[in-house]
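so my prof wants the structure for this chain in the tokens format not the other one, which i didnt know existed until like an hour ago. anyway here's the sequence
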Amino acid sequence: MKKSLPFVLLLFLAFQIQAQYKPFVFGMRVGGNLGWIKPSVEDYSSEGVRPGFTWGFIGEFFLMENYSILTGFNVNFNGGKLEYPYNMDINNDDTLDAGTLHRTYNLKYLEIPLCFKMQTELSDKITAFAKLGLGTSFRLSAKGTDNFVYDGGEVSEEKKLINDDVALMRESLIVGGGVKFKIKESTALIIDLTYDNAFNNILTGDDPALSNSDPKAIHNFVELGVGILF
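here's what i got, hopefully its the right format
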């Protein structure tokens, strides 16, 4: 009996520590973002950012009181803008005109994040946190708004499907932080800032204006989000 007392005491302390916080919380989150596409080959250049938004669900599994695994899913609407040399058959006569394509990418991804989250209490109602992890995204749709400029003028096309020009998967590094405001015992409001930096090339296919071309670019975005946890 005496030998089992330390184990019983340790088990009792573990239950007492766990009782101080919820082992699992879930919630919803929305946010606004600014996305851009950064090329890594000659003759391709970025033309700035594109605003977008996201919505999703949050699942948080606590390992200890101030350390947790953060996951869930996000539906991200974002993109970017690129400029690059291009050849187009303007008159449908099998003759290609050389020029420059200005394309705005409208991308929709389903992202599954997996992050390690650390937090510290600033007061009874306010907690600061940081998160670091990876994101795996699956392309749901890709559309392009094109403006082709050549010697004879320009041609514009509105939001055509370009799924064949955009990679199916996107892998990224997620870094962020924010604050959590306790509304009542089981409900909290969160505000966070997240930087999502892609690893892999999102462009597929060949550029008909460049011989032996292999276009490469990564897609990044920064996001300001707000959510509620239960």
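also thought this was worth mentioning. The two ends are 42 Å apart (CA to CA).
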